Each structure stands twice: as C-alpha cells, then as structure tokens.
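Standup notes
- HV: blocked on the assembly model, inputs below
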Amino acid sequence: MTAAADHFVRDDAAAPVEIRFDHVSKTFGRHGTGDLFRAVDDLNLEIRSGELVAILGKTGCGKSTMFNMIAGLLEPSEGRVMVSGHDPFSQFDWFRGKIAIVFQNDRLLPWRTAIQNVALGLEMLGISKAERFATAQHWLTKLGLGGHENDYPHALSGGMRQRVSIARAFATNANILLCDEPFSALDEMTANRLREEFARLVRENGKTAVFITHSINEALQIGDRIVVLLRPAKIAYDVKLERDASAAANDEVRARIRQVLAV
Amino acid sequence: MNSRAPAAQTSSFAVLSVLTGAARIAAPFAVLIALWQIAAQFFPPYLFPSLVDVFWRCIEIFTHWSQFANVLATVWRILAGLAGAFVIGALLAVLMARSLAVDRFLSPILAFFQGIPALSWVVFAIIWFHGIEFRIFFIMVLTTLPAFTFQVLGALRAMSKDLTEMVMSFRPTRFKLFSTMIVPAILPDIFTAWKVNLGNASRVVVVAELVGATGGVGYELLQQQQLFDMAGALAWTLQLVFFVLLVQNAITLLETMLFSYRAVSERTL
C-alpha cells in the first residue's frame, strides 16, 4: 500500500489515462444573491483504464459536481476534463454507449418493467428489440432478478430496484462506469452484498469505474484506489489499495483518511 | 363445499359492490328525472315537456340521418378544433419549455387570449372569415389553445429532473428522448387536459354554431328556441352530453389500460 499527502503518483503507469482533470474549477452562482460559489477548485486528477476509484469526501465537497463533469452534464468553468481523449460536455453524443451511470437512487422509469428499464440504454444505441431484451435478461439473471423481468418498479424492493439500475448500467457494456453513492439509501446488509457484486462485476468486465461515496468503509471495501477530496473539491489524499490488504493496513488508511477529513 | 364458500362469498360481495356503485351513480339522475316529471304534470310542455317525449325526440335524431348528420358535424368540429389546438399548443409548450425568451414572449399573449370570451371570438370570426367550417375551427382552436399550451407546459416542467438526467446520461437522440421519456412522462397530464378541454369545447361549439353556422347541434338548438320546442332543445342538448360522456369514458378506459404501471395505495385520498 502506498500513500501520499497531496498527490499520489500511481505505480502502474502502463495503463492509459481514461479520465483526466486538468486544473479544473467549477463555480456556481448562488440563487437570488448573485454571489459565486466555487464547488471545485483547481482539481488535477488522472484515472487510468481499469481502475476502480472511490472518490471520498464530506457532503458538499463537490464530489457530485466532479461526477457530473465526467458525465458531461456540467461544463467546467476553468480547466479541462477529458474522458477517453474527448471532452464529455462539448462532445456529448460521442460518449453514447461509452459511459454508464448508477445514480444514488435507482431512477427507474415507472412506466417500464424491470426488463424494459434494463434495455433502455441499448434502445438508445439502436440495438434490435430481440437482442436488447436478451442482453437485459442476461444481466437481470446475473443480478439475481430472474423472474422479476415483467415487474414494474413499484412492485420491487429498494434493493431490487437498485440491482435493476446496476443491470441497466452494465447492459450497455460501456467502458466507463460512474456511480454516485448508489448504495447509500439501502440497509447495510443489502448494501454490503451489492457492493461486493458490483466490485466483482467491474473487475470481471475490465471497466473503469468512479465510485462516489462519503463512507470510508465503503471506499475501503470497493476501491482499488481512494481519492479524498476537501471542500471545495481538491485532492487531499490519494492512495492505492492492495487487493486482500491486511486489516491493519486498512486501519492505517482509515486513520489517515479520518485525519485528512478532520482538517 | 367449505373451500368454495369463501370464493362464492367474494363473488357475491363483488356483485353487491357493483350494484351499490351503479345505484350511487343512478340515484341523483333518478331524483332529477322524478322532479322533472312532476313539473311536467303541472306546467305546459313548452316549459317542462314529458321526458317520454324527450326520449322519442332523441330516438328520432338517432334514426334520421338528416338529423344525426348534424350531431356528427358538431362532433367533428369539436374533435378537429381540439386536435388543432392540441397540436399547436403542444408545439408552443415545447418551444416555451426550451426557451425562456419564447416563454416570456408567448405567456402574456396566451394569458390575454384566455381572457377573451368565446362569444367575442365568434364575432371576430364572423367578421374576418367567410367559410363556416373555417370560422368554427378558428373559434375552437383559439378558445382552447391557451389551456392546452399551459397544461402541456406545466406537464413538461413537472417532469422529474432525476429521470430526465438519467435518460440524458445515455445520450439519446431527440426522437428517443421524446419517445422514451417526455411522451410517457407527460401523457397522464395530456389525457387530463383533453378531458377538461372537451367539456369547454362542447360549450363553445354550440355558441359558435348558434351564431355562425347553418348546421350542427347549436344551429338546431336555435331552431328549437324559435319554435319554443323544449323537448327538441333538450333532445339536441342530450346529444352533446352523450358525446362528451362517450369520449370521457373512452379516455378513462385508455388511461386504465396505459397507466396500469401506477402503484395504487389501499388507503384512498
């Protein structure tokens, strides 16, 4: 395990950079006052292909702003965000089928059944109905939802709905997965199980994943690397985790993160 | 025998519940009919005709093509006017939802139009246009357009931001965005808008036909008024009521079929 106080330089520089923040800042106007609020401040970050990076920070530290910039839903005020060598905001359509998102809440379309929800991304890609339903069925079964294909979201439990949203993200076979605290609304047992499943699927399928969380334990459980952000989003700690690290090593990282976040 | 008993009990409860529901709907009408029939005993037919006469006049309208064609003409005018207002209103609503400048420009105009009485539009149409059908179409569109526009705009603005962002994250084409997100999200409000505007349109069309047409239910009502034929006036009015009820029920049936995905709480509001 390696750790650095401000910037961490990864060991396996062989993998290409998939996501790059280059001196990125994002400023918002406060509603009604005209004051400016800086959510992200001069952020520099590189995420390499195949990494599962947990982005950790307190509420309001700009994690979601950073996330939305990678997703192409927000434009940086300064600096440049590049994903797979392209600008996700100005080249929005180029990323069709290349980025998939698992949101904090399931965001299932209530008028679609589970299988129709999973097939949504494939429909956007123009895949034939038979093929997209076969793929959706495969992912629903893989996530333990066989038999619930034709259930509407209101008939599913919170955990099941979040599984459907994970299946929806994986079904498009996008290279990059963005996850915004996807298990925070679930009970601990369900969340633990889904976290493990999610991390396994990401690694099995060789995805690059950015996982936003405010839980240190979740970051330790899921990430290959943890990036801790301070308000406004600026890297305070960047650490690569070894798979199967000892409890003592994890405790050391946990203590360091707590120390950084306490500032 | 014992296992059958609960099923039989459930089915008899269901029958009873349907009968109670039907009785609840029929009761106010039965009271109205009874009161009218009592009045018919004491007043001359040109004030309160017997409902038996009204019934036979209704049958006469249904069975004589020359008369029923007037009903169909009015129905066609209502539906064409509503369809025109809906298409234009939906387009304006989309433009207003997409652009604040368009919204700021059109909202006051539509609000101003909403304040103009239907009868004024009838007068304007008679002065401006010659063709009867175009006059009525113009009146129908202008009187229902603001409501359709504001209702569709409201539905577009009330769309879930979370769901829209989720769909947008898949980078849909404009067509896919409409077909997978926007249309299903606003469809319930569109159905409600149609139900509301249908009632308004059936009132406006009668005024338009009364003054500016040579056929249709409104024109026939004018004839009955000149003949002091109350039974005829009621029979022609009922044609429109039947039509509105028919379309309202068709929309409700469609809603039941299309929106079966909605969760239903056992505790009602």
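- HV (later): unblocked. Chain B has a mean pLDDT of 90. The interface with chain A takes residues 162-163, 165-173, 176, 180-181, 184-185, 259, 261-263 of chain B (CB under 8 Å).
- Next: hand off to the docking folks.
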